[in-house]
Structure formats: C-alpha cells, structure tokens
Predict the structure.
Amino acid sequence: MSETRFLGVALLLAGLCAVTLAPGAALALVDGPPPVSDCDRLAGFRGLPRLPDAPGTYAIRYPEAAVTACEDALRAAPGDPFLSVLLARARVARARDDRTALDLLNGAHDALPALVSGEIGKLYETGRAGLRTADRQARSLYQEACDLAPDPQSRPGCTRLGVMMIEGRGGATDLETGFGMLERLCGAGWGAACTQLAFQTDLRGIGDMDTLSTRVAALFETGCAAGDLLSCSQFGFRLELGEGVAHDPARAQALYREACEGGEPQGCSYLGEIYRSGLGVQPDMVEATRLFAMGCDGNDPYACVTLGDILSDGRGVPVDLPRARSVLEHACWLGDPEGCDKADSLR
C-alpha cells in the first residue's frame, strides 16, 4: 500500500473582516450581518470563517464554480478584502499558475496581514501562482504571520512555520521551538496543529516507543474534534486498523464519510477502499470508483493510482484506458513514482 495513504498536509487559512458599506446601504446593518455567499460555501476556509458560522471547504472541489461565485461576491462587496483572499484561493485551485492570485493577495495584505502572509507563504512553499518553490521565502512569510499572534488568522502560518522548523526547511532545524509551537497551537484548539504534531511525532518516534501509536492516535482524535478533517481521516484509519486505539470499523467509516463530504480527499480515498473491499458494507465498485475519483480530484496520489488500476483493468466498471492514463499521469505529476510507471505502461 502506498505511503500516500498515510501522509498529508493540509492547512486552513481564514478570519473575520469588516465589509465596507456604501452610505445608501446603511439600512442593511439593521437587518443583520452581511449574507453568507456561495463564495463562502465553495471557497471559504474551515475553522476561521469570513462571517460567523459561515460554511467552508477543506479543499476546493469545484474551482470553476468557486471562481465565478467569488467574482460575483467581490463585485457586490468590492470593499471586502477577505473575498479577495477567497477569490485568490479559488483561482489557484482552478489553475495553479494563475498569477492574478498573488495580485489579489497583495491587495488584501494591509487589511489582513496575518492571513495574507500565510497564504503567500503557502504559494512560495508549493510553487503556485507563477512563483518558484522557495522555502526560505515561505518560512519568512510564515514568521511574519506568526509574529502577529494572538491574531487568530496567524495560526495557519504559525503551524506551517512549526513544521518547517522541525524539518529544517527554509532555515535551521529547530525541533524544540517547532514542536513547542505545534503543542501550544494544538492545546489552544487549532486542529491543524494537532494533525501536524501527530505526523511529526509519528515520523520521528518522539517519546516512549511503547506508547507512540496511542499518543499519535490521541492527537489525531483531538485534531478531528477541533474540526480538522485530515485528522478525522487519519484517526479513522487508525480505528480501521486498531492501531493505538480500539478497532472500530463502523466509526472509521463514519469519519471517512464526514471528511470526504467536507472536501478532504484522503477521507474519500479511505471510504473508497471500504466499498472496494466490502469492509462492513456490500462491495460496490461503482461507488468505490466515484470515491477514488473524488480523492484524485483532491490531489491524493494514492486515489489516482488506485483509480487508474480500476479503470485500466475494468474491475467492476467498463475499461477506460484514456481516463486511466490521465489519472495515472496526474499521480505522477503529484510525485508518485508508481503512477509514473503505470502511466508509461499504458502509452
């Protein structure tokens, strides 16, 4: 089984901002807060919503629709810098090298410095919006975001800064500061920090090895309870295996579904495995294929490789070699060598 089933980093960046109203719109405040838009639903960040109780998505599943919704919302409220951030997020999801995303973020920086510094740092770390991958610039921008703590919008940047310190990327390795940062953020209820703390603790075997699996599972459970859907997927996987926690495949399935429905791709992949293997459900290759496709669309390499195998072999679904080759090439682009090899074999 590919290691890509086990690892993943996904962080949520958002916050509250004020909406500037024209004088003629003053009466709208009497009726209540600005309405939640389709932009919030399709491109909003979970955990730090633009408006109280606004929905969000872990990853943008429908980028074209998200771009249209955010452009419409920004035209209706041109003074809202948070909508500019969401539009930037949507445009990068639609086309990773869309340089207009950087312009939108820079324009929102003065109003939302912690949020925007973290978002631009992520663009440098992942090489998007026409930027070359540059860990040093990313780490510097995450530090700028983190320096604005306790602003809630600093938490995503601080989390990524902690990971870079632990991994020694973009600067010196600093395990003590990096782990300390993640521990404080997790303790304060920021689920993504719990997720990264679990990954880093597991990867480096921190602490008593006899209790390692139990501690890692507990961190994922804490992250899930705090709203981080990647933690939900990872905790579910440990429930499925009985690793560090009592075996509970029914609860694992429920967590996979919750994560998948919220836009977290590994949850879709794990749920696809449930339907492919018939673990507690009737085997259903059509449903498994649908779920693996959702995972692949969310850039989970394991899902893409598995989907490619199903489509090339016709396992319970019609053979579709062009689509199989496409998803395997996508897995290759995501860095999975197995995807590269299998794509080559179909050429």
